[in-house]
Amino acid sequence: MRIDTPAGSILCDPWVNPAYFASWFPFPDNSQLDWATLGQVDYLYVSHLHRDHFDAAHLRDVISKDATVLLPEFPTSEMEDELRELGFTKFLKAPNEQVVELPGGLKIMIQALTSPTDGPIGDSSLWVEYDGVRLLNQNDARPTDLTVFAELGHVHAHMLQFSGAIWYPMVYELPQSAKTAFGKQKRDRQFDRTWRYIDDLKADNVFPIAGPPCFLDDELWQFNDIFGDEGNIFPDQSVFLSEYAKVGGTNGIVLLPGSVAEVTTEGTTTTHPVPVEEFFANKVAHLEEMRERKRPIIEAEKASWRHPEIDVLGEMKRRIEPLLDESIYLAKGVGGPVRFDLVGYDGVDVESIVVDFPGKEVRPYADEKVRYRFRTERALIEHLLHIGEVDWVNSLFLSCRFSAARIGQYNEFVYAFFKCLSEERLQYAEGWYDEHERAVDAEDITLDGWVVQRRCPHLKADLSRFGIVDGDQLTCQLHGWKFDLASGRCLTSVGHKIRAHRADEETPAPAGDALI
To answer: Which pTM value belongs to this model?
Structure first.
């Protein structure tokens, strides 16, 4: 998205090239726009480092290096370091949640999210005001609430994510009926979260952005939402409008590549390169044409992944074991071995490697029981090791080029660790968990006959707004996490025990360590 005002232009998250092992492409296709013109901007804003937002090749080759980068206040310097390597030299480091006035009367504010589940170095949203017109580019950030933006005045344009951006449940080794049921639950939660954000801000117009991706590789084609699958987690913008209408939404506006929306305090006027309804009516044809056009790009990327010279076990030991030695909270949270089954070039041979969190070592699989197992091509792991990738979650896992199985609940610490394969990231994540697990959340609220702690144990969402009680079960609608109120046990993931008791009972003693 590009924001143009008389006081300057801001280009937001310009993504054109495929991401995550050539799995994700932008849809609708924006690669044929006039990027030579679009890239000549005054300001650049990249919300976070995920590669469907941070397109390094496009930033390096097309975007003007005279642009000033509006930099979120993240806990590490990774984003600035990467942008400097791409040739950017001008940076405005925006203090978190503070309005900054730029020349000409243009005002901006950036809210940075900094939990380990946000990257772990973070996600962010951009608020912009010029001459009384306000816009919030929430993108795919998930703040606990939007109060900080609403307090700055009525918002006229609200851009936010609505579609899926994960590998669950498609990659899990489950019966198709179970995948469909879990996918439908996730799809419904995505929309519920979106409606909550929209209701919080009450903007004049809502623009569904930041998704979905499309999948053009033949191996992944089934993930596109074109088969009438109610469990598909990647609904497109036309589905958003349909679902939004069911809850009374009448102010949604879909943007295509080349669309222009003129936003004023009086209303919004939008022009499109082609009629929106016509475009989505021909979605399958657009995808098929795009697949053929992008096929050489996919094949070229696939040819670059193999590195048979790499000793995968040896390199994983060298890189991961020092991090295991330093890990306290993440290692304890995982609590057991995690197995990687690596399929050879012939598609048959398999090498099994275990990351043993309690034993603090990487070793060959020893025929033991594991709670988490991933199966993928050896070439993908070779490539991650070859390029020194520090975030296997936002590379391998988001590619959906793997299958997974687990025993028991979802364990967020598994994914938090594999986002943190660098000294800087690991130390930050360990410190974050240390601070938050030790913090005492003393404030309680009453929900439907239960007294519960106000903040969700997961990511501190305000349960007075996001909490829904059904019998003895509480659901936090921000991320869909569930808790058994009678025991305090988290039903979604290991750990994260909640403090709760019935309103007509005495307050129990403190529950203790949330990781137990």
So the answer is: 0.88
